[in-house]
Design brief:
It is built from 7 helices and 11 strands. The strands form 3 sheets. It has a 7-stranded mixed β-sheet, sandwiched between helices. The chain has a two-stranded antiparallel ribbon with strand order 2-3. The protein is α/β, with parallel strands linked by helices. Helix 2 links the parallel strand 4 and strand 5. Helix content is 34%, strand content 21%.
Amino acid sequence: MKSRLLIPAAGRGTRLGASIPKALLPLDGVPMLVHTLRAFNAAEQLEGLVLVISDEDRPAFEACLASHFPRLSPTFVTGGAERQDSVRHGLDALDAATTEIVFIHDAARPFIQPATIRAVHDATLLHGAATVAIPAVDTILEADESGMLLRTPDRARLWQCQTPQTFRLEVIKAAHAWAQRENLRGTDDATLVRGMGHPVALVPGTRFNLKVTTPEDAALAELLIRENLACTA
C-alpha cells in the first residue's frame, strides 16, 4: 500500500519558551521532527512526507531534513488558521495516484514506536480508519461552566487519544469535506471521520508517546532519552 506521512508543524514552541518551530525543538540535541521520522523510517512507513508549516520557517525545515534525511524529498504546504485547516491543506497535496493510506501525526509526539506505527497501519487496512490511543487510568472529571464537578464518566469506556491517526485517503478527504460543509471543528481527525459516520478502530499505544507541550514535558522527554526508555528505532 502506498502511504504518506502528513505532519502539521506550523505551531511555534511559545509555551515551551522557544522562538523556533516546535517540531524543530532539540531533544538531547536532535530536533523532535527527526526523532519522529526515524521511527517511521524504522517502521518502513516513510515513503513520502507532507510537512504543513509556516512559510517563514521553510528554510529551517529544509536545513534540518537535508542534514538528517538527505534522500527524503518532502512536500511543503502552507499552514492554515487552525490545525484542522492545516491538515486539510496537507490532504489537498495528496492524490489517489500516489497515496492510499495517510498517517497524520502530531509534530510534538517524538516517541512513537515503530511497532505502534505498523499496528495502526494494519488496522487501517481492515477498517479504513484507525487512531492510536491508550485506556484512561486516571478518573476523568467533567466540569461545568463555573469549574465545579458536573459528572464523572465511566473510566472503563474512556481512552486518551494519541497519534498517528491513519486513514485511507478517500475516507479522510471525505471527512474533511463533510466538516467544511457542516461548518464543524474538531480537535482531531478521527473525530471528524467518526462524526461523518465511518467507524474508527482504536489501536493501543504506549505512555511513552507523550505530547511535548510544556517545559515539564520537555524535561520529561529529555529524561526518557537519557535513560534510553523511549527509543523510537
